[in-house]
């Protein structure tokens, strides 16, 4: 069954820091403060369009800002509005996102009381040097401590990481992924850095001190990260910023593409095909992939098949029920 989120955005409220990359209004496309009535409206709209079984498996999700660091009365008013639907069994639970330094025992108890089931932490990196350069205001240890505390309370743990930050290299991104895997999150979101107007990264880019990595440079790294997480049994639920909102007009650099995940998964399949074809004579082959994976193997505008053809391999693609995701078999 497809998982459904009733997504609500709390715009840059409660956060004590302005990170190098942050412009929440552009990221969310939201300009006004969320109200409890907005929560009710969104929940009712979702219930009107979903069958009861699908809705009951979904969550009301508060994204953006730092949910546990907003003014306490305001936070509780939003939780109360959402919690009424949880108590009635209309939705499974509440999902929130927040900063690692916005988690402690009191907060965990409060969240559990109101029906929160999943907490995503904006970790971004587990390299203290990269965190400091990008003015995150927390350490890698605070991320690790928050993860362990959330797990002890039984919350589903989600982690968000960024690639291509100021001062970051592929090596520290790989190390961050390895450390995240050791914390056993259920889900991960991967956000390659997008430079937005009005941010410190934009200033650094304009002075030449920071050169953001573009989509072409980013895809191979993110393909590797996706594979690492998926092989560890961790679901990657997002790659790249959502298109729309205010991002399209505010992005001035970095890896912003409306189909970034598709590009990354296409790269995973290309690499897998090249490994399987290595050592075989040039000629025509059929590449077998799992159900629903044909387009990822062929790549956008059939780029993967063109690359294989240039190497002497004329390939057709077929789907096979017994082939797992990201696996390619040669026939």
Write the layout of secondary structure elements.
Elements: E1 5-9, H1 24-28, H2 36-49, H3 52-56, E2 59-63, H4 72-87, E3 93-98, H5 105-113, E4 116-124, H6 128-133, H7 140-152, E5 156-163, H8 170-182, E6 187-192, E7 194-196, H9 200-207, H10 215-231, E8 235-239, H11 247-250, E9 251-254, H12 260-277, E10 283-289, H13 294-298, H14 303-310, E11 313-319, E12 329-330
Parallel strand pairs: 1-2, 2-3, 3-4, 4-5, 5-6, 6-8, 10-11
Antiparallel strand pairs: 7-9, 10-12
Give a quick summary of the entry:
The chain is an alpha/beta fold. The chain has 14 helices and twelve strands. The chain folds into two domains: about 5-255, Aldolase class I (TIM Barrel), CATH 3.20.20; about 265-330, no CATH class.
